[in-house]
């Protein structure tokens, strides 16, 4: 019976101790989970390259005279097709909008060898699984008189540069 | 003098034996206790239970598919490490190294063949193993989490083979990765970022090759090994391979074997049927197994000792796997297409057979075929054991009580097989429908 009041005496400090332990456990948990999340996030940031080693998206393709009127020249290394109609020049992407294969110019426009997407001469989808038309890229004339294609700059289908 | 000499002599006499004894704590077992202890004291054997149900050993029940998958993974690890010694993850060198394997590396061709064919086989056996687990109802509680580990292992297997076939840097590799990462690009919200991080660049090139190489040789095998370990551990903790409820079992005549004379408390018998232990004596043997799952007094009648029954079965499956892989690798060379030509995709550009179902789906809609439908299928597979919780028909092939679930899964399997068959045989240039006949 003598033990009973003793227990009550010690009850109070014990009650204070338990929240402290819980607090430490909680803090440790938050710390560990936080470190984990920070680690995963920074790893993803690390994995996303800030500079790439591939070819630049803006490049020169030569003088307008190299493309006679009516020409449709696919430059596969750059993945664009240079179209010239009269005095107007445009650059159409040859990367299929479906899954990134290279489309080949055909009699009716463009055709993709991978999954059978078909496009008309302007790059609009006429068949197959492609979800949208081939992109048109901005073409400018540099001061030196060369044509420059900027693949970062998509323009509306049917927009030509007069040369 | 004589005492010391004697002890020295004893050391010498003991010499080879005490080394062996230090390695193998147990002599070759001649008693049931020994058989239990052999499984128990050996690091490699203790992964297995001391006793295993006869059902689990029946070849027609499991067909050894999970084990074959594991052994294929071991073969892939060994051959993969060897191939790494001669491989360079560089766009200018990788293809040349493939040719070097043929011309100037001893066993180069057979190693590459083994690696490639084992990878193909592993995709098949992991999938068939999943089918076995489904059709025997083995995914049901308490095995629902292990089923999900298995689904993760199937995905990891597919990812490993996907990252693997970029490495030769041939036409198939390049265009398969172009298509594959484009599919990733269709993922909602994170698609574009995911594709960029996977490729490390805007297009498939040196960065992508390096990234896929690291994923293939380090990241994925490591994660896969971890999941395999958890998968195996959970088999034990979830009560071994799924077996029918005791009520469903036919009553068996009690074991008639009387405990023979020997060490008190242990059954010793020279008869091979002594693997069936007298139920009275089982307490002492099960007593070796500590932990919360010891079922004293409620022991399955239909079990045998793992040593040697399970071990022999496993060694036989291992032999079968090695022989199978070697025979196929001896007669068929792993394909190697033309070196990468960034300008001209082959027409048609086909993935390996196990991705052709996906490619066929993708040819209808990139998002739905590549992300939507596979995502839903995956989700259904993962949630399945949490919805289908009836205990009926577990541990038997095509149990009548499970006719609905089994039929639905069969439809899923057949649909995918049909898609693969169409993609493989019925698609020609520009992915047009062609007849193979």
Characterization of this structure:
The complex is a heterodimer of chains A (163) and B (437). With 163 residues, chain A is of the alpha+beta class. Helix content of chain A is 28%, strand content 30%. Chain A folds into 2 domains: 20-50; 58-162, 3-layer Sandwich (Rieske Iron-sulfur Protein), CATH 2.102.10.10. Chain A has 1 helix and 11 strands; from the N terminus they run αβββββββββββ. In chain A, strands 1, 2, 3, 4, 9, 10 and 11 form a 7-stranded antiparallel beta sheet that branches. Chain A starts with a helix and ends with a strand. Chain B is mostly helical. Chain B is built from 16 helices and 2 strands. Chain B has helices at 2-23, 32-41, 54-57, 59-62, 65-84, 94-103, 108-135, 144-164, 171-185, 191-199, 206-237, 282-286, 306-331, 353-362, 366-387, 403-425, and strands at residues 51-53, 303-305. In chain B, α5 runs antiparallel to α7, α9 packs antiparallel against α10 and α14 (353-362) crosses α16 (403-425). Chain B is globular and about 80 Å long. The N and C termini of chain B lie far apart (93 Å). Chain A binds chain B through residues 44, 47-49, 52-54, 57, 76-77, 98-102, 111-116, 128-129, 131, and chain B through 175, 178-179, 181-183, 185, 193, 196-197, 200-203, 205-207, 342-349, 359, 362-367, 369-370, 429-432.
């Amino acid at each position: 019976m003598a033990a009973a009041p003793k227990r009550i005496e010690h009850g109070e400090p014990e009650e204070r101790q338990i929240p402290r332990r819980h607090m430490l456990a909680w803090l440790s948990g938050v710390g560990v989970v936080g470190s984990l999340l920070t680690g995963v996030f920074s790893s993803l940031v690390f994995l996303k390259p800030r500079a790439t080693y591939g070819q630049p998206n803006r490049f020169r393709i030569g003088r307008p005279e190299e493309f006679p009127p009516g020409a449709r020249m696919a430059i596969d290394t750059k993945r664009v097709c240079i179209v010239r109609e009269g005095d107007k020049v445009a650059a159409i992407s040859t990367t299929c909008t479906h899954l990134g294969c290279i489309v080949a110019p055909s009699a009716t426009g463009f055709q993709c060898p991978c999954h059978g997407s078909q496009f008309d001469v302007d790059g609009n989808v006429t068949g197959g699984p492609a979800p949208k038309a081939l992109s048109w890229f901005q073409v400018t004339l540099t001061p030196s008189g060369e044509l420059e294609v900027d693949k970062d700059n998509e323009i509306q289908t049917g927009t030509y540069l007069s040369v | 003098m004589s005492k010391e000499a004697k002890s020295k002599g004893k050391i010498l006499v003991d010499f080879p034996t005490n080394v062996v004894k230090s390695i193998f704590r147990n002599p070759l077992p001649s008693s049931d206790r020994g058989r239990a202890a052999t499984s128990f004291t050996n690091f490699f054997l203790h992964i297995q239970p001391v006793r295993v149900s006869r059902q689990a050993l029946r070849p027609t029940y499991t067909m050894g598919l999970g084990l074959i998958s594991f052994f294929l993974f071991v073969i892939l690890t060994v051959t993969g490490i060897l191939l790494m010694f001669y491989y360079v993850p560089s766009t200018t060198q990788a293809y040349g190294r493939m040719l070097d394997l043929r011309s100037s590396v001893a066993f180069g061709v057979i190693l590459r063949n083994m690696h490639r064919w084992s990878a193909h086989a592993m995709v098949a056996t992991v999938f068939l193993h999943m089918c076995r687990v489904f059709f025997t109802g083995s995914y049901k509680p308490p095995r629902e989490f292990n089923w999900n580990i298995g689904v993760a292992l199937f995905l990891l297997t597919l990812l490993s083979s996907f990252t693997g076939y970029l490495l030769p840097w041939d036409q198939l590799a390049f265009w398969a990765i172009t298509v594959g990462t484009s599919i990733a690009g269709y993922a909602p919200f994170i698609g574009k970022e995911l594709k960029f991080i996977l490729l490390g660049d805007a297009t498939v090139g040196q960065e992508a090759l390096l990234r896929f190489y690291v994923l293939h040789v380090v990241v994925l095998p490591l994660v896969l090994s971890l999941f395999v370990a958890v998968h195996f551990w959970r088999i034990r903790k979830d009560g071994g391979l799924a077996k029918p409820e005791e009520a469903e079992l036919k009553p068996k005549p009690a074991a008639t074997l009387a405990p023979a004379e020997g060490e008190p408390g242990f059954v010793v018998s020279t008869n091979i049927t002594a693997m069936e232990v007298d139920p009275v004596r089982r307490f002492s043997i099960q007593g070796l197994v500590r932990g919360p799952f010891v079922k004293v007094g409620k022991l399955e009648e239909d079990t045998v000792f793992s040593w040697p029954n399970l071990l022999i079965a496993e060694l036989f499956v291992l032999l079968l796997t090695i022989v199978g892989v070697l025979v196929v690798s001896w007669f068929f060379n792993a394909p190697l297409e033309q070196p990468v030509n960034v300008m001209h995709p082959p027409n048609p550009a086909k993935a390996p057979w196990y991705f052709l179902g996906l490619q066929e789906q993708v040819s209808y809609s990139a998002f739905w075929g590549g992300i939507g439908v596979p995502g839903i299928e995956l989700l259904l597979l993962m949630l399945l054991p949490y919805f289908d919780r009836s205990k009926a028909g577990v541990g038997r092939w095509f149990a009548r009580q499970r006719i609905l679930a089994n039929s639905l899964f069969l439809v899923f399997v057949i649909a995918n097989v049909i898609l693969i068959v169409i993609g493989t045989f019925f698609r020609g240039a520009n992915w047009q429908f062609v007849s193979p006949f």
